Amino acid sequence: MPVSEYMALCLGHPRYGYYTSRDPIGAAGDFTTSPEVSQMFGEMIGLWLASVWCAAGRPGGVRLVELGPGRGTLMSDALRAAGPFGLPQAAELWFVETSPVLRAAQGERHPSAQWAERLEDVPGGPMLLVANEFVDALPIRQFIASPEGWRERMIGLRDGHLAWGLSPVLEGGPTAPAGTWTERSQAAEALADEINRRLQSGIGAALLIDYGYTAPRPAGWTLQALRAHAPTDPLERPGEADLTWLVDFAALARRFGELEVQLSDQGAFLAALGIGTRAQQLASAAPAHADNVADALERLTAANRMGTLFKALAVRSADLAPTPGFAVLETAPT
Ligand code: SAH
Q1: CA-CA-CA-CA torsion for 47, 48, 51, 56, nearest 10 degrees?
Q2: Phi/psi class of residue 113: alpha, beta or left (left: φ > 0; alpha: ψ in -120 to 50)?
């Protein structure tokens, strides 16, 4: 089977799927995400959401959508930060989540939320969308150029064990030196198309934050498996390890076509939104926790931590000004 089918089964099988059957997030789980590192992450996103909503004229009934909300932590922190602006009262909260385990965790924190299986099922209208570490869980296909042409990387059985293989040569495709690799997520492309469609027909914006790259491209295929906070073989214990890839943000940005896209490293994005000031505030409010706050700030923003490995991408409807948090590349008029 193609890698995409393997990923979809491992992560989403109704009974044995990784996300279907457990809450994998946190110290006792397999990986820790930014909202679980510190409340400051969700708070900065709350300020971003409130700012975009105010710039949009504070539309009532705005769909506040989160894709893959995990434990609902990001949204709790974001709504608290956005509270003084009036966004929580005006918004209709929608979670796109397939895992029943995580839906239950989200419901405890957000009793008024509504759930959808896919973004397509969320009603239209003004929309503010956010997703952290969602795109990297969508299935990818992997291709490699061989001397005879392009082949797809496959997974099958050899002597009763899962093993890697290659498909027969595929028709077409650009000519490329042998060994050239590429990854493609049709699910991520479909998601971008759906966001695009909604922002073409209604006011709003979307913020996608994920583990990924723009340039240079990584040296090889990016599929990885994580179990108990350590890398593991993706073919070992299917459904018991998290499977992710590094999102190609340059390709994702191109998919939005005519809409304007803003891109940044996570560290610079959070800094521009004021995470440094917030850290000082929290540290002086509770000096006993000052070290924890400093650690969290460093983990979320430092270049050798999550600061550059993670990227933020914003896309907005044509009638909106650029969203906050992204460095302006043009020189300001003097
Ligand atoms: N955003 C959260 C959780 C990230 S983990 C955080 O930052 O902590 C990925 C999340 O996406 C989980 O909630 C998982 O159940 C959900 N998810 C993964 N694949 C999905 C899919 N295809 N459709 C909907 N939700 C999915």
Answers
A1: -140
A2: beta
Say if residues 272 and 326 touch (Cβ distance below 8 Å): yes
Q: What is the 3-state secondary structure (H, E, C) of 118-157?
A: CHHHCCCCCEEEEEECCHHHCCCEEEEEECCEEEEEEEEE
Any atom of ligand 1 within 6 Å of the Cβ of 244: no
Nearest to 202 by CA among 90, 56, 94: 56
- The response to whether residue 10 sits with its C-beta less than 6 Å from ligand 1 reads no
Q: How many CB atoms lie within 10 A of CB 152?
A: 18
Q: Of the residues 76, 95, 97, which should be mutated to test ligand 1's pocket, given the most ligand atoms within 8 Å of the CB?
A: 97
- Could you report the per-residue pLDDT of 227-275, keeping only the tens digit for each? 999 999 999 999 999 999 999 999 999 999 899 999 999 999 999 999 9
Residue 283 near residue 290 (C-beta atoms within 8 A): yes
The residue assigned the tokens 């914003």 is 314
Ligand 1 pocket check for 268: Cβ under 6 Å? no
Note the pLDDT of residue 334. Answer: 47
Residues listed for the chain = 334
Q: Check pocket membership of 17 for ligand 1, CB cut-off 6 A.
A: no
Expressed in angstroms and rounded, the spacing between residue 114 Cα and the centre of ligand 1 is 16
Tokens of 323: 């969203």
Distant-in-sequence, close-in-space partners of 57: CB < 8 Å, separation ≥ 6: 203
| Average pLDDT score, the chain | 95
Q: Give yes or no for a contact between 169 and 148, defined as CB atoms under 8 angstroms apart.
A: yes
- Quick one: which of 1, 51, 77, 78 has its CA closest to 235? 1
242 within ligand 1 shell (Cβ under 6 A): no
**Strand pairing partners for 311?**
210, 265
Q: What is the pLDDT of residues 118-171, one digit of tens each?
A: 999 999 999 999 999 999 999 999 999 999 999 999 999 999 999 999 999 999
